Amino acid sequence: AREKKKGGVLPPDGGWGWMIVAGCFVVTVCTRAVTRCISIFFVEFQMHFARDYSGTAWIHSLVDCTTMLCAPLGSLIGNRLSCRVAVILGGFLASIGLVLSSFATSLEYLYLSLGVLTGLGFALCYTPAIAMVGVYFCERKALAYGIAMSGSGIGTFVLAPLVQLLIEQYSWRGALLILGGFVSNLCVCGALLRPIVLKEEEACPLPVDSESGYNVKLSAGNGVHTEKVTGVKLQFNGKQRCLQSMQEYSFLLMPDFLVLAGSFLLLASGCSLPFVYLVPYSLDVGVSHQHAAFLMSILGVIDIIGNITFGWFTDRRCLKKYRNICYMFAVGMEGICCLFIPLLQTFALLVPFSVLYGYFDGAYVALIPVVTSDVVGTSYLSSALGVVYFLHAVPYLVSPPIGGWLVDTTGTYTATFFLSGFAMISSSLLLFTAAIVRHCQRKQKNGLSKEPQLESCDGKQVDYYTSKNKELMVIIPATS
Q1: How far apart are CA 259 and CA 156, in angstroms?
Q2: What is the 3 state secondary structure string of 128-143?
Q3: Among the residues of 102-242, which ranges form H helices?
């Protein structure tokens, strides 16, 4: 009550914020890790329903696509109601979707129950939980996100062999039923997301981190200019209430965000393919089922190291202004790793790939919210994350079936992994090119600002200094 009378508090950068991080951690386990583990069901679905690679790949595509496509809906519910309501509702829908999937009689049934319903539940949970971390942290934001996003890696490490064991013991139907009960823990995570009232003027020293390398001017109106962001209750004066919806998405006109959006489209086109086809590829080259699932576990546990170490390193003052470069490096290296997969045809050679790919995957995933926040500012983070994850939807939908079609057509996985690698390398190069252009423009602007500005001397008395003795010389223009 005392905080409300004062009009808000500063981001605590700790305290209950760590409970928010813990809740977001479990959310990433129950959403992204479970989505990754669906690839372990790939062969089971293919054999049970007697379908080809392309048709079976639509299940994983629909889960990822629906999660990202409905991300703005999660942001909208989080902004209008609360993140708590959004996550609890999403957890209920996701759990119901997995339970219903255990009774599937066709792939089309799984498209709806596992692909659409479960994906919708994940969408309502994922974006609001991530945005809440950004509200509770300012100085240690990258570290907090690194810990929270590491849930996908830890979850993959634990769930991959566990899901394989559940399939062997209870069949794929029993495994999906148990996963449905596990995912219901999202409702508990939603209860942890306690709203916080922030002072708008003191929430962060600047709307965008001054050391991030981006200069963003947020629109300002007359009087108090505030917004409601992921449970942060803010107030508007007069006519600004009518402009709330427009202001929430005004970042869409920022050139830097448009470039970042294009980069995310290319990234999403390639990053999901290794998670879908790593296990089938391993089985195709003679790796056992247990070893193939263990490769996913290795990828997941190294993912954790990438999440936390990159988050901690990029929070250091010496690296803070180079966070976008660290992000480009991680995405580019992940793409290069994919180009070498066709040369790796034994379990011993696939282990180093899982290590490198998992590390750089964890690195860039932890930096996506941070880089987005650096571009658009904390005030727009919730809406921006909704758009960012929405941009992943179409690539997530079409790239696995395209990869499956390439496998069916060529008979090998080479073209599929090449598609993944070149897409991620192109994503990194796009951001790198934009950074070079921005640097050249800033350098040119600084050079122009240092040139002397001379005023016209028509009809005026102008003072000049000589370059040697700097004595004042007065020149009076001749009059007609």
Answers
A1: 31
A2: HHHHHHHHHCCCCHHH
A3: 107-110, 118-136, 141-149, 151-183, 186-192
Measured between alpha carbons, how far is residue 436 from residues 325, 376, 439, 442 in Å?
11, 19, 5, 10
Per-residue tokens: 209: 């981190």
Strand-pair partners of 472: 465
Mean pLDDT of 353-379: 83
Indicate the average pLDDT of the chain.
77
Tell me how far CA of residue 342 lies from CA of 47, 281, 282, 332, 350, in angstroms.
Answer: 24, 9, 11, 18, 10
Residue-wise pLDDT for 302-335, tens only, equals: 877 887 787 777 777 777 777 888 889 989 998 9
Q: DSSP readout, 80-125? A: HT-HHHHHHHHHHHHHHHHHHHTT--SHHHHIIIIIIIHHHHHHHH
For residue 473, the surrounding DSSP H or E stretch is strand 472-475
SS (H, E, C) 291-325: HHHHHHHHHHHHHHHHHHHHHHHCCCHHHHCCHHH
User: What proportions of the chain, in percent to the nearest 5, are helix, strand and coil?
Assistant: 75, 0, 25
Both tokens of 63, joined, read 């889960």
Secondary structure of residue 464 in the 3-state scheme: strand
Give the pLDDT score at 423: 92
pTM of the model: 0.62
Q: Give Cα 164 to chain centroid, integer Å.
A: 28
